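Project outcomes to date are best conveyed with an example. Our students and postdoctoral researchers have been running inverse folding experiments weekly, and each run begins with a structure described purely in C-alpha cells. The record below, which covers 229 residues, was selected by the lab manager from last quarter's runs and is presented without edits.
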C-alpha cells in the first residue's frame, strides 16, 4: 500500500519542498504529485506520478499522451488527467519560439514555420491547417481542418474557403505536417495544392503558399517556385 501525503513528514512533502528549496530541485514524481494534488485509495499522489512515468518510460514522452491514455491508468481520473494535460500544454506554449502569429504581417514563410513547428513538429498524425490573410498580408486567423492521413478526397476546397469568407480573407496559406520528418512534397501534396489554387482563382481568394512542416525543417511551395499566384 502506498504512503499517503499526510503520512509524509511535512518538510518532505512536494509542496513544502518546493517552497523551501525551489521548484527546480523537485523530482519528476514530485512535480506530478503537485499537479495531481491528491492520491487515490492505496496510492499517494507521488505514487501515481511514479506509476505514470513507469508506463510512459521517459518524461519527454508525456508530450505524446492524450486524455484517453491517462483515463486508462487506474487512479488518474478526469480531474487529474485534465490538470496534467493543461500543464503540459502550458509548458509547450511557454517554450514556443513564436507565441502567436495573429496580426503578424507575412514577409516570409519562415515566420509561419517557426510558429507551427512547435504545434505540429512532433505530431504522429498529419494535421492540415489553413492560415488566412487580409489584403495587406496580415494574418487574421487560422483553422485546423483535418487530422489524419491527408489525401485529395479529404482536403475539400469547400472547407478551406468557407472560413476565408467568414473572416473576409483575401489570401490563404495551407499548412500540414509530415510526421516522417521528410518535408519533401508527395505527388498528392502537389495535386491538393494545384486543385486549391484553381478553385481560389475562381473564387478570387489566392493560395499564396503551402508549407510542409517537420520538427527541424520545412518546405515552402512558394520559396521553391512550385506555386504561381
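After processing, the design step wrote out the following sequence:
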Amino acid at each position: 500500500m502506498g504512503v499517503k501525503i499526510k503520512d509524509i513528514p511535512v518538510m518532505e512533502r512536494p509542496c513544502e519542498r518546493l517552497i523551501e528549496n525551489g521548484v527546480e530541485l523537485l523530482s519528476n514524481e514530485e512535480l506530478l504529485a503537485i499537479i495531481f494534488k491528491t492520491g487515490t485509495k492505496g496510492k499517494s499522489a507521488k505514487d501515481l506520478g511514479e506509476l505514470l512515468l513507469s508506463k510512459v518510460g521517459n518524461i519527454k514522452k508525456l508530450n505524446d499522451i492524450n486524455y484517453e491514455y491517462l483515463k486508462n491508468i487506474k487512479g488518474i481520473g478526469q480531474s487529474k488527467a485534465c490538470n496534467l494535460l493543461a500543464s503540459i500544454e502550458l509548458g509547450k506554449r511557454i517554450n514556443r519560439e513564436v507565441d502567436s502569429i495573429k496580426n503578424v504581417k507575412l514577409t516570409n514563410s519562415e515566420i509561419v514555420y517557426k510558429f507551427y513547428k512547435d504545434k505540429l513538429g512532433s505530431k504522429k498524425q498529419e494535421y492540415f491547417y489553413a492560415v488566412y490573410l487580409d489584403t495587406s498580408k496580415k494574418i487574421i486567423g487560422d483553422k485546423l481542418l483535418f487530422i489524419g492521413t491527408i489525401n485529395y478526397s479529404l482536403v475539400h476546397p469547400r472547407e478551406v474557403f468557407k472560413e476565408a469568407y467568414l473572416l473576409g480573407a483575401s489570401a490563404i496559406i495551407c499548412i500540414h505536417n509530415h510526421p516522417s520528418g521528410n518535408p519533401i512534397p508527395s505527388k498528392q501534396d502537389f495535386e491538393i495544392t494545384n486543385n486549391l489554387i484553381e478553385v481560389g482563382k475562381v473564387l478570387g481568394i489566392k493560395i499564396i503558399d503551402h508549407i510542409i512542416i517537420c520538427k527541424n525543417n520545412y518546405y515552402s511551395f512558394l520559396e521553391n517556385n512550385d506555386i504561381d499566384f
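The first helix runs from residue 14 to 21. The mean pLDDT is 87. The training component of this project remains on track.
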